[in-house]
Design a protein that fits this description.
36% of the residues lie in helices and 37% in strands. A hairpin with a 6-residue loop joins strand 2 and strand 3. The chain starts with a strand and ends with a strand.
Length: 95
C-alpha cells in the first residue's frame, strides 16, 4: 500500500531558500533515484516562509523503513543539517 510521507522542516533564520534549493538540486534526485520512491517534491511556506515541506510517495511503509537504513538516507539527513532547525514527519495512507 502506497504511503505519503509529509516532512515539515523549520529552516534556520534566512536559510529557507537555500534549504529548498538543496532539496531540489540534491535531495529530490537522491530520493527519486531510490527504487521504492514513487515521487518526491518540495515547496516553501507561503504564510510561514521559514518552513519547507517535503512530500515523498513511497511504494510502501516497509520500503520507506528500508530506505532509512541506507547510505542515501544518511546523505539526505546530513544534507539538511546546515539548513534545518528541526523537522516533523508524518505518514499517510490513502484508500
Amino acid at each position: 500500500m502506497m504511503v505519503l510521507e509529509r516532512v515539515e522542516i523549520t529552516a534556520k533564520d534566512g536559510m529557507a531558500g537555500a534549504l529548498l534549493a538543496a532539496l531540489r538540486e540534491t535531495g529530490i534526485p537522491l530520493l527519486t533515484g531510490t527504487q521504492s520512491c514513487v515521487a518526491a517534491r518540495a515547496g516553501g511556506g507561503v504564510e510561514n516562509p521559514g518552513k519547507v515541506i517535503l512530500l515523498v510517495e513511497w511504494a510502501s511503509l516497509e520500503a520507506h523503513e528500508a530506505f532509512k537504513k541506507t547510505q542515501d538516507y544518511i546523505t539526505l539527513a546530513q544534507m539538511l543539517v546546515p539548513f534545518a532547525n528541526g523537522a516533523v514527519a508524518e505518514h499517510f495512507v490513502f484508500a
